[in-house]
Automatic annotation (TrEMBL), chains A, B:
<keyword id="KW-0067">ATP-binding</keyword>
<comment type="pathway">
    <text>Amino-acid biosynthesis; L-threonine biosynthesis; L-threonine from L-aspartate: step 4/5.</text>
</comment>
<dbReference type="GO" id="GO:0009088">
    <property type="term" value="P:threonine biosynthetic process"/>
</dbReference>
<dbReference type="InterPro" id="IPR002575">
    <property type="entry name" value="Aminoglycoside_PTrfase"/>
</dbReference>
<dbReference type="InterPro" id="IPR005280">
    <property type="entry name" value="Homoserine_kinase_II"/>
</dbReference>
<dbReference type="InterPro" id="IPR050249">
    <property type="entry name" value="Pseudomonas-type_ThrB"/>
</dbReference>
<feature type="domain" description="Aminoglycoside phosphotransferase">
    <location>
        <begin position="27"/>
        <end position="257"/>
    </location>
</feature>
<keyword id="KW-0418">Kinase</keyword>
<keyword id="KW-0791">Threonine biosynthesis</keyword>
<comment type="similarity">
    <text>Belongs to the pseudomonas-type ThrB family.</text>
</comment>
<keyword id="KW-0028">Amino-acid biosynthesis</keyword>
<dbReference type="Pfam" id="PF01636">
    <property type="entry name" value="APH"/>
</dbReference>
<dbReference type="InterPro" id="IPR011009">
    <property type="entry name" value="Kinase-like_dom_sf"/>
</dbReference>
<keyword id="KW-0808">Transferase</keyword>
<keyword id="KW-0547">Nucleotide-binding</keyword>
<dbReference type="GO" id="GO:0005524">
    <property type="term" value="F:ATP binding"/>
</dbReference>
<dbReference type="GO" id="GO:0004413">
    <property type="term" value="F:homoserine kinase activity"/>
</dbReference>
Length: 321, 321
């Protein structure tokens, strides 16, 4: 929960003068989202989200993210639509920080995902991959397999304070992942962070996907492997094969998986667990005293990684090829 | 900024089934408000605020607060209107906590109040006092002059860690206030917490007053004295006599002040500064490590108190009787 940047009197009016959505009726800081400052903005033209980008997002990447959202929404994918300024641009400045206004998406993210949610996410993920297939500009994934070891090294010996021996276990697992990582699977735009709090549902239907600020070009089924981690484990750590079956089934009904893609799921899921383990570990070891945001326990992802390490093959996720 | 209570899947639908405002289209935790959990709730019928009351508000007081809001809004005062349930009530339960739905007020609170805002607040405060004049039920002020010494004693010697000698200075000031406190000025319902973040403006006009959870029966001009503290000092500590003149002028144009009320303003303003000094001091000394909410520095109110202590009479606030 976070609002880092205050909008001063007059600044909002000055901003909105550059758009064609009327004046502000209300602008309320919202508690969700830990990376940026987000405001629910009501104008004569309706409801919008105003985002002020804080330091975690690279300003140079913003045009790419916003162009991707425009591209996807043009193709009917339910994501936020950037609102164009009168001058045609989609980026503005507030207090020397970049800012954008996007459409407001109805719905609410599921607090306790059910198998039907997992189905809908698999279906939407395939739609996203297909809708983005003709998006030209590329953004490399800066949190992919080659980036994990440097990140682990930046965590340093602190990992062992989280769990004795963890630093060594991570190093050994990275040896395996770097060797086994698939090199020639179909690539494209992936969301790369499709957790439950980024997917809205309304009247039991998926109504929106938000937070594309990790989107990038990478192996398409790596996105599915991220979702297996994000949606298919219960709070007690148990893997829910019913949800996995629903998710994979819905995905491949819309975008069929090749045999190599299917077979790569366990190693990709291990890698996805490693990626979230490492960023959580880094945040855990480096969060400032008294920060607003309590870091999430990294060990949840060590346990997920361990599950994927133990499966005999992708069939463990509930479907045969 | 705070959302303390999560609303589970299905809980919102179950809650809204008790009302006649349709189903939830969106429900977003908002970052403002430090006492309760507040959500911007969009339904088929429009925008509302859903509040879940956390422990600082006494549940037994809630019917009084909500009845006051209904009374004021019936008389045209721009405050949140409690939405009635199908059974006629205005209180619900979420996760064993009391909850209410009220109308959403347009506008935005002024980050840098100007004299015109001070004028509008004086005008609205008088309207509030007049509109509440025929509200029957009473709620005593549990933060009035008789409550300050016990509160100061609960702060204990920690006050001296905030500023050397502060505990003694507070005790001596309380001796003065308890003796000088006026006993027979006109009483009625006061807001008692009318700070800038509780007053919304839209298109340069006051559009709403929120957060009545300190409202109570007390000396009417004590409310004006609170507003002098809340609105008429600059960030650097300087008293802005222009704002005070606007505020007092607007107030008495709508509700004329008697001579005793006018003359009591300096001591009431000292008392108001003491009240906020003490609650801030208590919160400063007692906030939990790593809490979301950073307590406000209590010394700001010691300096305001000192200003009021130094004035020769109410004319120092910009108007002669």
């Amino acid at each position: 929960m976070a609002v880092y940047t205050e909008i001063g009197d007059g600044e909002l009016d000055a901003l909105l003068a550059d758009y064609e959505i009327g004046g502000a009726i209300a602008c309320t800081g919202i508690a969700e989202g830990v990376e940026n400052s987000n405001f629910l903005l009501q104008t004569d033209a309706g409801m919008f989200i105003l985002t002020i980008y804080e330091k975690r997002v690279k300003p140079d990447d913003l045009p790419w993210f916003l162009a991707l959202l425009s591209h996807l929404s043009d193709r009917g994918f339910p994501c936020p639509v950037p609102v164009r300024r009168r001058d045609g641009g989609v980026l503005s400045d507030i207090r020397a920080k970049p800012a954008a206004i996007v459409s407001f998406l109805k719905g609410r993210w599921p607090r306790k995902p059910l198998p039907r949610h997992a189905w809908a996410v698999g279906d939407a993920l395939a739609s996203l991959h297909l809708a983005a297939a003709d998006f030209g500009p590329e953004r490399p994934n800066d949190l992919s397999v080659g980036d994990w070891r440097p990140l682990a090294e930046r965590c340093g010996p602190g990992a062992d304070d989280v769990r004795s021996g963890l630093a060594d276990e991570i190093a050994r697992e990275l040896d395996v992942l770097e060797t086994a990582w698939p090199r020639d699977l179909p690539r494209g735009i992936i969301h790369a962070d499709l957790f439950p709090d980024n997917v809205f549902f309304l009247d039991e239907r998926l109504s929106g996907v938000i937070d594309f600020y990790f989107a990038c070009n990478d192996i398409l089924v790596y996105d599915l492997a991220i979702c297996l981690n994000a949606w298919c484990f219960e709070p007690d750590g148990a893997f829910n094969i019913t949800k996995a079956r629903q998710m994979l089934g819905a995905y491949r009904a819309r975008r069929p998986l090749s045999r190599p893609e299917f077979d790569a799921l366990p190693v990709l899921a291990r890698g996805a667990a490693m990626r979230f383990l490492l960023t959580r570990l880094y945040d855990w070891l480096n969060h400032p005293e008294g920060a607003f945001v309590t870091p999430k326990n990294p060990l949840e992802y060590w346990r997920k990684l361990d599950f994927h390490r133990g499966v005999g093959g992708a069939a463990a996720y509930g479907l045969d090829f």
